[in-house]
Amino acid sequence: MSDNTKQEKSSTGNRKKLKELLHKSDNRICADCNAPDPKWASANIGVFICVRCCGVHRSLGTHISKVLSVTLDEWSDEEVESMVEVGGNSYANSIYEAFLPREFSKPTADSTPEERAKFIRSKYEFQDFLKPSLRIVSSKSSFPSTSSFRSCESGKDKYSSLNSNLSEAGMIEFIGILKVKVVKGRKLAVRDMLSSDPYVVLTLGKQKAQTSVIKSNLNPVWNEELKLSVPQQYGPLKLQVFDHDIISADDIMGEAEIDLQPLITSALAFGDPDSLYDMQIGRWLKSYDNALLRDSSVRIADGNVRQEMSLKLQNVESGEIDLELQWISLTGFEN
Question: Which of 53-67, 167-181, 281-295 is predicted least confidently?
Answer without folding.
Answer: 167-181
